[in-house]
């Protein structure tokens, strides 16, 4: 049961803090949830060591869930290199963020609720990665969606937070609809939802088709694309990305844990987990590559123009997820997982660092109102540097190794989509470096733009917030070269084992090691160029960005408004939905159902009552007349009846 | 010389004699003794109850077939006598306070009651008319008893004029029936119908239509109900209470006896009449009361609706239907007596008020009375386990057994609509703020007793319903000789 402990310890913490939060108080809730998470992180590390490093893969069955005919679903913890890696990373990062939250949320009114949600999220995320079948995967999938909704809307008194929470939930519904359809299709085709059974049967399904409404679709392509739609929703890929920047309405630890390190990577994890299926669906893989690469460049361009410190990092997350997807799309699943892990460290570091800045700046998030504070909060400044260096892919920081291998794999794929991904990815790497240092310079350097009052209060965060940052910073520094050999180097075959499946002629990671030198150097050069550009624009001649904006106002507006995706969706979906809803409400429910139903009957009754009252005129001759008419009608009735 | 058996008519004879005696006492002692005369009248009525119960329980025909007593008559007579007695009790305080204290009042009620008893025991069209007119004439006078008040005299006059019209219809019907069958006695008419093998001539059917119209007037069924709201509102409140209680029971009983007795074989022919007036009454009773602001007028519509429900049982025309009618009437009388006891307690600053809105806040100022009224209203709305629910249950059950599904469904729907205005009064009593509370001392001891006893009967009927159920079953069986 030790192997199941990291999954269920967070649940225990969530239950205690959630249901007995009033009883044990703020401090008690923090202690319970953080205690559970520390234990989970320790056992998670053990699981990583035992399963991933020692190769003791296993599946721990917890209980039978649904048994109906051939439909058999169990609660289980599937432990192989993939899930053990995820469990180790999630439990560690979640543990750090729990501890950080104790400091960051210290002045909040509902600490037990926050800690309970955070732990609940961690539980669902761990359920997701340890699933042994599609249904449990979906359970975790929806669970993290729920926790994400609750945490984005944690400050429910803010209308913007509520709107963001609802937006996240609804956009994810679109993805989840595809995901659910994919699971239905899996059960229809395979008559099973267990991973092992499905993976074993997949080679036999190549070339078969599904008939739907008279159309024939390739089975595996259809299933994989449907499942990928789910992944797009959860991982905020182009088209279904609109919720992620808004999700920054949640408290910063939430952004770090859910919207950077863990939940948003669930889509990447899912594609890697289902690599035995995607490998046989080349069309689906091509789609994954194109979507990933497009997201990487799209989000990077938008990130250039944003002023909200958290939004910049959010678009950066979106962009980095695009990297992971195109890596998976060119069959470099191990590279995608590698970047997933390194990204978790440095992106959580960046978010928590941004949180530290926001904390210091009295809850100010707009970079235009910062600047000149690097001497005041040197530790945070240094940590942000580490995070940015890792993100930009500067050697020897973590991002360098993982980003390099992904771009090289894309190049090594020697396909059209692979080349597209390589070009887009390299260009995005330049942009990434640029906006990262733009963020750094705007936030920490230059003349202070905050008001006098705020500047006086700028202070370094307490140790409880900085300590987790140290841990994450260590990860951001060393995770790259420490894991390089295991994940994508010579040890990768024995490390991943059966967890990741790659067809022999798809082994792009192997080919990646033999690409020309310029390809290997390109990402680093791009990073250096980006950093230099940012230095020029924001330190050397700070008036240049303003001039650039003036010169290219159209492009700038297009980027600043996020390619007008929100406006487009608002026009295409939101308004028609509102019109339809309003129409059905006013016309359908109000006019037809209420009008003819309850209200109509009541109105008819009242009208009848009024008429009946009016009959009572008070005149005797009217009354007599009514009596006579009554008799006449009755008599006529009989006359008619007997006459027949 | 053949001896005429007087014993079957002993209660009637007692009432007639006692009525004369009370009249004499009143004449000689004057108006000052109205209260003691009233109590004496109550005593007379209670003695009559005793005589009714202790009379022959089997079917006995007397006066050359003109007069009959059986279990049915006994059941209804007890109801009528008790109802009249309660009416007198309810009036005690009122007639003194409202300057109505003339000794004729209880005497007239005793005489009206005599008429009702004769109606119930009628076994001949002539007896029927005799009883009906004796009752009606007394009631016309009572309705106009506050002869110096325009509302009261108007009510009496309207009642009289329309009553005369209905009597005319009734008599016309009687003459048609006599013309068709050559008989006025119920057995002879039944024999004539049977001889015709159940096929009714058009003259006979028209006779039944006119007769039914006349009787429908007495039970205030639609469309012969028009007098009811005006008379109920205009007449002095104790008179309204009287109208709503005993005469209704007597008229329904007469209706039942005439339809089931001589015309029992023609149930297929007369059923449409009953269905029509029953649906009309239920519907109007449910709908028209919604807009009323005067509690007496509301109770008038309520009684119209209630007569509609009772007629559902008669429309079924079966033994269980008649049993349902009798149970319904017994429960109805108690609910109505209780309700009017509440209405008679509504005084503000020493003056009677009749507005429904005057009941606002009653639960705070008069919690016991509000509770009792709430019980009556819930019962009238047919909420289980109160008695009113069972009353409706038995008539609807009989209708369903007789295959009259639409009638039962309409009845249930009407009672749903009707529930609205009953519940509205409860809402006003319990949730609205009183503008001006009702007088604290408004409830006399006798009226309070009537409220309490009625409320307990309604509330606990379901605990021990068998006395009413068994005697109603016996009474119903008496009308259906094997």
Structure write-up:
The complex is a heterodimer of chains A (644) and B (482). In chain A, 74% of the residues lie in helices and 4% in strands. By secondary structure, chain A is mainly alpha-helical. In chain A, the strands form 2 sheets. A two-stranded antiparallel ribbon of chain A has the order 1-2. In chain A, strands 3-4 form a two-stranded antiparallel ribbon. The longest helix of chain A has 33 residues, at 21-53. The radius of gyration of chain A is 30 Å and the shape is globular. The model of chain A has no long low-confidence stretch (mean pLDDT 90). Chain B is built from 20 helices and 4 strands. Chain B has a two-stranded antiparallel sheet with strand order 1-2. A two-stranded antiparallel sheet of chain B has the order 3-4. The interface between A and B is medium-sized, with 25 and 37 residues.
Characteristic key phrases:
heterodimer, A: mainly alpha, two-stranded antiparallel ribbon, 28 helices, 4% strand, B: two-stranded antiparallel sheet, 20 helices, 2% strand, globular
How much helix, percentage-wise, in residues of chain B?
Answer: over 70%
Topology, number of strands of chain A = 4
Return the average pLDDT of chain B rounded to an integer.
91
Measured distance between first and last alpha carbons of chain B: 35 Å
What's the overall geometry of chain B?
A: globular
Output the structural class of chain A.
Answer: mainly alpha
Strand numbers in spatial order across the main sheet of chain B: 1-2
If you average the pLDDT of chain A, what whole number results?
90
Oligomer: heterodimer
Radius of gyration of chain A: 30 Å
Low-confidence runs of chain A (pLDDT<50, min 5 residues)? Answer: none
Unreliable residue stretches of chain B: none
How far apart are the termini of chain A? 90 Å
Discrete helix count of chain B: 20
For the largest interface, the chains and their residue counts are: A-B, 25 and 37 residues
């Amino acid at each position: 049961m030790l192997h199941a402990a990291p999954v269920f310890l967070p649940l225990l913490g969530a239950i205690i803090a959630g249901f007995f939060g009033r009883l044990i108080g703020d401090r008690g809730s923090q202690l319970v949830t953080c205690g559970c998470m520390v234990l989970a992180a320790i056992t998670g590390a053990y699981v990583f060591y035992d399963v991933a490093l020692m190769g003791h893969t296993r599946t721990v069955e917890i209980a039978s869930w649904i048994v109906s005919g051939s439909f058999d679903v169990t609660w289980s913890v599937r432990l192989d290199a993939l899930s053990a890696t995820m469990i180790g990373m999630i439990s560690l990062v979640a543990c750090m963020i729990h501890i950080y939250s104790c400091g960051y949320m210290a002045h909040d009114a509902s600490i037990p609720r926050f800690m309970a949600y955070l732990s609940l999220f961690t539980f669902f995320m761990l359920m997701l990665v340890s699933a042994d079948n599609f249904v449990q995967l979906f359970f975790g999938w929806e669970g993290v969606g729920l926790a994400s909704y609750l945490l984005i809307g944690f400050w429910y008194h803010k209308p913007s937070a509520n709107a963001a929470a609802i937006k996240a939930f609804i956009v994810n519904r679109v993805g989840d609809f595809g995901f659910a359809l994919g699971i239905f299709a899996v059960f229809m085709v395979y008559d099973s939802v267990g991973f092992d059974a499905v993976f074993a049967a997949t080679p036999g399904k190549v070339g078969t088709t599904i008939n739907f409404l008279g159309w024939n679709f390739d089975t595996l392509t259809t299933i994989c694309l449907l499942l990928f739609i789910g992944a797009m929703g959860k991982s905020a890929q182009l088209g279904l990305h609109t919720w992620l920047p808004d999700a920054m309405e949640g408290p910063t630890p939430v952004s770090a844990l859910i919207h950077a390190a863990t939940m948003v990577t669930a889509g990447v994890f899912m594609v890697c987990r289902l690599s035995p299926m995607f490998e046989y669906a080349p069309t689906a893989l091509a789609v994954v590559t194109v979507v990933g690469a497009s997201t990487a460049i799209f989000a990077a361009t938008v990130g250039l123009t944003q002023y909200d410190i958290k939004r910049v990092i959010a678009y950066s997350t979106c962009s980095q997820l695009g990297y992971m997807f195109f890596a998976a799309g060119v069959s470099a699943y191990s590279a995608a997982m590698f970047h997933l892990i390194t990204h978790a460290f440095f992106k959580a570091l960046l978010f928590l660092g941004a949180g530290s800045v926001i904390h210091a700046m009295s809850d100010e998030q707009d970079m235009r109102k910062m600047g000149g504070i690097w001497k005041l909060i040197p530790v945070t400044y240094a940590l942000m540097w580490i995070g940015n260096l890792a993100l930009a892919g500067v050697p020897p920081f973590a991002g360098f190794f993982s980003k390099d291998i992904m771009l090289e794999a894309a190049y090594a794929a020697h396909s059209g989509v692979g080349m597209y991904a390589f070009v887009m990815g390299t260009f995005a790497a330049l942009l990434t470096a640029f906006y990262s240092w733009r963020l750094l310079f705007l936030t920490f350097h230059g003349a202070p733009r905050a008001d006098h009052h705020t500047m006086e209060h700028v202070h370094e965060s307490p140790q409880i917030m900085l300590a987790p940052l140290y841990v994450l910073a260590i990860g951001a520094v060393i995770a790259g070269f420490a894991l390089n050999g295991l994940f994508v180097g010579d040890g990768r075959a024995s490390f991943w084992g059966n967890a990741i499946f790659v067809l022999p002629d798809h082994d792009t990671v192997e080919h990646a090691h033999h690409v020309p030198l310029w390809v290997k150097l390109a990402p680093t050069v791009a990073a250096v160029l980006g950093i230099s550009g940012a230095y020029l624009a924001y330190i050397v001649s700070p008036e240049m960005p303003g001039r650039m904006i003036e010169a290219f106002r159209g492009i700038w507006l297009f980027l600043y408004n996020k390619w007008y995706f929100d406006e487009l969706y608002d026009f295409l979906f939101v308004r028609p939905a509102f019109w339809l809803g309003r129409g059905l409400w006013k016309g359908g429910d109000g006019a037809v159902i209420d009008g003819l139903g309850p209200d109509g009957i009541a109105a008819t009754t009242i009208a009848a009552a009024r008429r009946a009252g009016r009959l009572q005129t008070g005149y005797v001759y009217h009354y007599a007349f009514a009596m006579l008419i009554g008799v006449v009608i009755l008599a006529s009735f009989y006359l008619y009846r007997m006459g027949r | 010389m053949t001896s005429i058996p007087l014993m079957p008519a002993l209660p009637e004879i007692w009432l007639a004699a006692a009525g004369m005696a009370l009249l004499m006492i009143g004449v000689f002692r004057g108006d000052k003794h109205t209260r003691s005369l009233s109590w004496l009248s109550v005593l007379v009525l209670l003695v009559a109850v005793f005589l009714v119960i202790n009379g022959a329980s089997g079917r006995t025909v007397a006066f050359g077939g003109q007069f009959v007593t059986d279990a049915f008559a006994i059941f209804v007579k007890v109801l009528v006598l008790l109802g009249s007695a309660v009416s007198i009790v309810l009036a005690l305080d009122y007639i003194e306070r409202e300057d109505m204290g003339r000794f004729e009042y209880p005497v007239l009620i005793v005489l009206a009651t005599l008429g009702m008893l004769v109606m119930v025991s009628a076994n001949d069209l002539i007896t029927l008319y005799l009883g009906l007119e004796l009752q009606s004439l007394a009631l016309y006078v009572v309705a106009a008893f506050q002869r110096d008040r325009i509302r009261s005299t108007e009510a009496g006059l309207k009642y009289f004029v329309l009553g005369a019209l209905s009597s005319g219809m009734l008599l016309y019907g009687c003459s048609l029936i006599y013309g068709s069958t050559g008989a006025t006695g119920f057995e002879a008419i039944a024999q004539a119908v049977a001889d015709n093998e159940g096929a009714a001539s058009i003259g006979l059917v028209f006779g039944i239509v006119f007769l039914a119209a006349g009787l429908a007037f007495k039970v205030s069924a639609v469309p012969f109900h028009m007098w009811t709201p005006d008379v109920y509102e205009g007449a002095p409140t104790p008179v309204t209470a009287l109208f709503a209680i005993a005469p209704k029971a007597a008229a329904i009983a007469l209706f039942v006896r005439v339809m089931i007795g001589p015309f029992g074989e023609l149930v297929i022919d007369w059923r449409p009449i009953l269905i029509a007036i029953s649906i009309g009454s239920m519907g109007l009773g449910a709908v028209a009361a919604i807009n009323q602001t005067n509690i007496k007028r509301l109770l008038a519509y309520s009684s119209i609706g209630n007569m509609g429900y009772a007629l559902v049982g008669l429309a079924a025309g079966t033994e269980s239907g008649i049993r349902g009618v009798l149970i319904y009437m017994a429960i109805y009388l108690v609910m109505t007596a209780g309700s009017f006891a509440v209405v008679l307690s509504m005084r503000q600053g020493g003056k009677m008020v009749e507005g429904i809105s005057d009941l606002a806040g009653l639960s705070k100022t008069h919690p016991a009375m509000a509770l009792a009224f709430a019980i009556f209203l819930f019962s009238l709305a047919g909420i289980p386990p109160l008695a009113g629910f069972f009353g409706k249950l038995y008539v609807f059950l009989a209708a369903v057994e007789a295959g009259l599904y639409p009638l039962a469904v309409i009845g249930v729907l009407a009672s749903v609509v009707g529930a609205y205005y009953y519940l509205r009064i409860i809402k006003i009593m319990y949730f609205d703020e009183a503008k001006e509370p009702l007088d604290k001392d408004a409830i006399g001891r006798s009226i309070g007793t009537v409220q309490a006893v009625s409320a307990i009967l309604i509330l606990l009927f379901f605990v021990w319903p068998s006395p009413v159920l068994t005697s109603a079953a016996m009474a119903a069986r008496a009308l259906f000789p094997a």
